Structures are given as C-alpha cells and as structure tokens.
Records
---
Amino acid sequence: MRISERTVQTHLVNIFRKLRVSSRTEAVLHALKEGWLTLDDLPDKNEEG
C-alpha cells in the first residue's frame, strides 16, 4: 500500500493532537509513561536496519 507523505503527516498531527504532544519523541515518552511501551520494545540503536 502506498500513501503520500502528506497523508502520513496528517495522521501524525491527529495522533499528536489526541495525545496532547507535539513531536514523535514526546509521543514515545508519553507511551512509556502510560505503560503502552517498554524500553525493550524500542529498537536497539546498535542494530543494523
């Protein structure tokens, strides 16, 4: 499935608004605080890909 970059940006803006955050970093921090994510769920910075 292909969607435009504009569509992705629109979805991100809607998600940020619902979470009351203004960036991907804030969204991740919010998810960690809420227990939706753990640090083990995040990609390892040293992994390739």
---
Amino acid sequence: MATKPMTKTQIIAEFAESMQVPKKQAVQWFDALAEVAVRETKKTGQFIIPGIGKLVKSVRNARKGRNPQTGEEIQIPKKTVVKFRVAKACKDSVVPPKK
C-alpha cells in the first residue's frame, strides 16, 4: 500500500494529458497557481482551492517549552505559520465517513 507520491513532473504530465495542452503550458499553469496561492496567502491570510482545501496563515503565540537534551525550560517565541486545511468534500472522498 505504501506507494510513492507523484512528482511535480508526473503531475504536470497528467495535467497536460487531461487538458490536451503541451507540457510547457501545463508547467506555466502549475507555477502560476503556486505563485497566486503564495501571494494571496501573504496578502489576505488564506487561499482556497475549491474541492481540495485552503492555505491559512496563522499566528502561534509565545509559549514555554523544554530542551529535550537538558530538560531546561525555554521560551519559544511567537511566530507566523502556514497551515493547510483539507476541504470536507476531499476528505470524504479519500476517507469515507463511518456509518
């Protein structure tokens, strides 16, 4: 069951075949989607890909932690992170809900 995930090259080949366009054009589309996703997430804090999910910019508050080697308590600073939330439709089609 442990198969390798698709590479960017394989995804682009799949796009090109399904849209019946040259691979070069599929690469441009794929790169443009990634660029728009990053730009919009930076600007508005989220980017939605309908049917798949959304990128969300989130802030993690400062907190206390422990150094695993010494056990010493340390302060972890506040930071901004990007999370991906899977859409319900995608989740239900990949992992059907229990009945």
---
Amino acid sequence: MLKERLKEMDIRITELSEYLHISRPTMYKFIECYDSKQFKAINQEVLKLFNYIAENELIGKRGVITYILNMNVSQEFSDNAEIKAIEFLKNNPDSKKSKFIKECVTSETFDKIIFYLIDILPVLHKSKPDSKEEKLIAPYKELLNKIQNFEI
C-alpha cells in the first residue's frame, strides 16, 4: 500500500501534494486509485512517481524530493486539465456537464460536433475574425442563437 510506504519514508500526503501543486484530496484519490490499480485515473507524471516509490525499496524522502525536482513536474500539475476534469466529474456526478463528458468519452455520438468545436476554438478567442473565419463559426453562432431562444 502506497500510503503506508509514504509513512515509512516520513512523507506526509499534505507535504507531497504541496511539492506537486496538487490538492490534498486529489492526492488521496490518486493514492487510492494506485492502491486499487486504477492507473488510468492518475496523472501520468504522478503515476511515474508512485511507481518509482513502489519499485525502489531503499529510496527515502530525500530521494523522492530529488526525483520530483529532476522530473520538473511541479509546474505541470497546477494547470493539468485532466486532474481538473476528474475532480469535476467526481464532485458533480449528476450535473449535465458531467453527463455530457461521460457521453463524449463512452460513445461517438458527439464526435463530429466535438471536432468542429475544437477546430473553431482558436477563432472564438479572436476579437476580430476575418470573413473566412466568420463563415467557419456561423453554424456555431446559429446553434447558440437557437438554444438561447429555445424554451423548455
């Protein structure tokens, strides 16, 4: 069990989460996922660190800190969209957004729409799209207009 291994090395979970710029609850979830072998739910850099800890019995606290510094992962975690998405899904399992995300991940129903939205995203961030870009985002604007005028 990883939690016990960290305790043996005198590494507090709060301390580890601070090193990695991850919230303490997220760190607990990652450790729980690691111990239950749900590796896909763990950020890949965190997973590498956990494997390093688990596979090196002689490693100590200093070795773990050195590993983190050498991997230069600290900044990567603060903006990690995967972590934020997992946290959102776990904290809001019944929200419409979570249901949509789950549908996107488990089916191909919205693939064409998703690909279109990803393609137009840079244009949507522009303050003044050119005429070609305006034409590209026209279906998006039309859909938004229809949704805003739609009564449930």
---
Amino acid sequence: MIDFVRVGKRIQELRQSQGYSQDALSDRVGVTRQALSRWENGLSAPSIDTLITLSKIFGVSFEEILCLDEEPELDPENIFAGHDRDFIVQSILSGRIKVDLPTVFYQFSPSERMRILMAICDGSLREPVTEDLVAVLTRGEKKFLADKGIAVLPGKEEKEENDG
C-alpha cells in the first residue's frame, strides 16, 4: 500500500529542490496545476506513466518518489499526522507498523476501530486483548469481542506484578 500523503510531500520536496513552480512542473509533465496540487496534498496520485516522467525529470527512481523504501515515522500523539489514514490502518493490520493499541486506539474512527477488532478476532492481527485495551473500548466494542468469545488477558501492570 502507498502512503499518498508522504508521496505528495516527496513530489513537493523534489519540485522545490529543483526550483520548479507548480505551474512550470505541471506544464513539463503535461497535467494541470490543480492535478499537481492534489498530488502534493495527498488527495490523489500520479499515473504510472506520469511517475516515470517525474522520475526522469527529478533524476530519481519512481520507488523513491513512492517512498517505498521508507519506514513511516509515527507521532504517538497523532499517528496519522503526515500520512494517509488508510495507509496507516492497513500497515497496522498487516503488521508492517507496530503500535501500542491501548494508547493510540482513541485516534481511530469507529469504522477503523471495528476493522482492527475484526482483524484481532479472525487472527490476522496478532494483538492480545488485554485489560488495557478493553479499558479504552466502547460498550459495543466490548460486546463485539464477548460475542466472538475473545478472552481478556491481564494488562501490562498486572502482568508485571505476576511476573515479578
């Protein structure tokens, strides 16, 4: 999956570092300035043909433009800052990004929260359902887990006391 927000920032960085205005680059690439602006704001992405053109103009690989070799850096206070929301959620679901779910769960929308809980239930996301996580769930989310027969494990502090 591609982080369109990060790709947009990369295109903007490359454009500015080479001294192009949005008008000049859009003319050279053969798109409207509005299309280029949408890319830079992470609202859409260039076509494959356009990516190849951009890579030639900037003298970089299209992999670099697409930020494929970068590990996303997350701000625990706002894990979505500077990133495409769906990219972050998909990366968590796939295990590419590890987060402390109990501390960041409030940042997810209701539908994202359910996607995460469903992935935990079906085993595609290997995340223990601890008391810490349950403490931040809504009543409906707790009922969903109970209906799925998901057992709650002790929280971090309780586990440390038992281990010590």
